[in-house]
Structure formats: structure tokens, C-alpha cells
């Protein structure tokens, strides 16, 4: 196995506790879209999160379109994506917190100088930038090493498409086998695995020990090499991958 020289961090619920806030912020807009297309079902934030965690709003809308069989023209889709982005950023700038235990690990990694560090997210670039700024994590990631499946690619997409991971590897000058991805969701784990990148799964952002254990099994089945319940376990997980 090649030497690991690059770490690729998912953002939402991996670096920052954003998913619940974000899905609450976009539930109202999602319900307005459904109503406009004469769909009677309505969603709460937690319901959307259960169905679409790890995907960006574009991916979520495409999922709703497929589920309910309605159509959105490109202009409508782009308008709604931009509106959701603005609503979510406003909420995150007010309430966002880092994931428990991540800050000491980021500082330790920076001081070691052993690895390059980048953020690879499905979320819009403005949202990711606002997230790392709000939580004082921007100092750990060069501005040109923050990548968004919604914004950075010529054609917007969402995890589990591996395109954003392959793009990030190209931009940081690394082969997938030289990288390790840190992911919390099924779609994110699949994205990295499909790109040929070993994954450390983080389940500490899920509510309750039972759910964390459940997600640990889910992410292992998707191909995660190691699973951590808390960021304090990261060193050990990374070491196991490096020695494999």
C-alpha cells in the first residue's frame, strides 16, 4: 500500500455538527416545493435527514423528484438550490459547533506536518467555507483545498458519486491510494470507496449508542476500513490503515 500523505475530511457531521441544523433549515423550502407540485406529503428536518443524509440539496431534490414523479425545470432547480444555500448558511452562522473532540485532533495533525489536509463535501462551497470559518477550522485547510461536489465540479453532483473525491485527489496532486477519507454517512463512504480511497468512518455525531453501533455496521458494509466512535480514536484508526 502506498504511503498515506493526504487526509480528506467530509464536512457535515464529520468536522462540524451541521446536518440537523441544515435539514431543519431546508425542510420548509422542501415542503413548499412539494406543495407547488401538488404533492401532499410533508417532511420534518429529521425525516429528511433520515432519507438524505450525506447528500446536498440538489441530490435531495433529485431524490424527491424520483420518489414522487414530478418534474423541475433547470431554472427552478437552480433557484431553489441557491435559496436553500442562503437559508442554511444563515442558520449555521448562528448556531454551528464543531464535532466533539475534532479540534484537538486537527491541531495535532497540523503540528505533526505529516499529512496534507483538505475538505471534500457534497455541500455548496459557500456553505462549507462558512462552516469552517464559524468553527475556527479554516486555519487547518488551505482555501484551495476545500472542495464541493455542488460547486467545484464542471457538472454539479453529489456523493455517492465518486467524482468529487477523484477531483480532489487530482487537485492536491495525490493518487487515491495515498489518501484516507473520513466520512460519517453511507453516501459519503460509498463516494470515497468508489474512488479507491480507504475510509475511516466517524459515527460519533449520531444520536445514542445504539444508533452509532448501527451506523458503524452500515458503513463497514459500504467498505469503511475502520470506524471510530470519537475523534480521540482517529490516530489508532489511521495507524491500522497505514500498516495494512
Could you describe the 3D structure shown?
- The model has no long low-confidence stretch (mean pLDDT 95).
- The radius of gyration is 17 Å and the shape is globular.
- 50% of the residues lie in helices and 10% in strands.
- It has helices at 19-36, 45-52, 57-68, 74-95, 102-112, 125-134, 163-172, 186-194, 209-221, 234-243; strands at 6-9, 116-121, 146-148, 179-183, 199-202, 226-228.
- The termini are close together.
- By secondary structure, the chain is α/β, with parallel strands linked by helices.
- The protein has a six-stranded parallel sheet with strand order 3-2-1-4-5-6, with helices on both faces.
Radius of gyration: 17 Å
Question: Overall pLDDT, averaged?
Answer: 95
End-to-end Cα distance:
7 Å
**Poorly predicted parts:** none
As a percent range, the share of helical residues equals: 40-55%
Largest pleated sheet: 6 strands, parallel
Looking at the structure, what is the overall shape?
globular
Q: Which strand order do you get reading across the main beta sheet?
A: 3-2-1-4-5-6
Number of helices: 10
Elements, N to C (H/E): EHHHHHEHEHEHEHEH
Structural class by secondary-structure content: alpha/beta
Strand segment count: 6
Strand content: 5-15%
Amino acid at each position: 500500500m502506498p504511503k498515506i500523505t493526504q487526509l480528506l475530511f467530509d464536512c457535515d457531521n464529520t468536522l462540524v455538527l451541521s446536518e440537523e441544523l441544515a435539514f431543519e433549515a431546508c425542510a420548509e423550502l422542501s415542503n413548499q416545493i412539494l406543495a407547488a407540485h401538488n404533492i401532499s406529503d410533508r417532511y420534518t428536518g429529521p425525516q429528511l435527514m433520515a432519507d438524505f443524509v450525506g447528500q446536498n440539496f440538489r441530490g435531495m431534490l433529485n431524490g424527491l423528484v424520483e420518489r414522487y414523479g414530478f418534474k423541475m425545470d433547470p431554472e427552478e432547480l437552480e433557484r431553489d438550490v441557491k435559496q436553500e444555500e442562503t437559508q442554511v448558511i444563515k442558520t449555521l452562522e448562528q448556531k454551528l459547533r464543531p464535532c466533539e473532540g475534532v479540534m484537538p485532533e486537527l491541531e495535532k495533525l497540523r503540528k505533526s506536518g505529516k499529512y496534507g489536509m483538505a475538505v471534500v463535501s457534497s455541500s455548496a462551497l459557500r456553505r462549507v467555507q462558512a462552516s469552517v470559518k464559524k468553527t475556527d477550522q479554516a486555519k487547518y485547510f488551505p482555501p484551495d483545498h476545500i472542495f464541493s461536489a455542488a460547486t467545484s465540479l464542471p457538472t454539479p453532483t453529489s456523493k455517492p458519486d465518486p467524482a468529487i473525491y477523484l477531483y480532489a485527489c487530482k487537485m492536491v496532486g495525490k493518487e487515491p491510494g495515498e489518501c484516507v477519507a473520513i466520512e460519517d454517512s453511507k453516501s459519503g463512504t460509498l463516494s470515497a470507496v468508489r474512488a479507491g480511497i480507504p475510509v475511516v468512518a466517524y459515527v460519533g455525531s449520531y444520536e445514542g449508542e445504539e444508533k452509532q453501533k448501527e451506523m458503524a455496521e452500515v458503513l463497514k458494509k459500504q467498505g469503511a476500513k475502520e470506524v471510530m466512535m470519537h475523534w480521540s480514536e482517529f490516530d489508532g484508526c489511521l495507524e491500522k490503515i497505514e500498516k495494512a
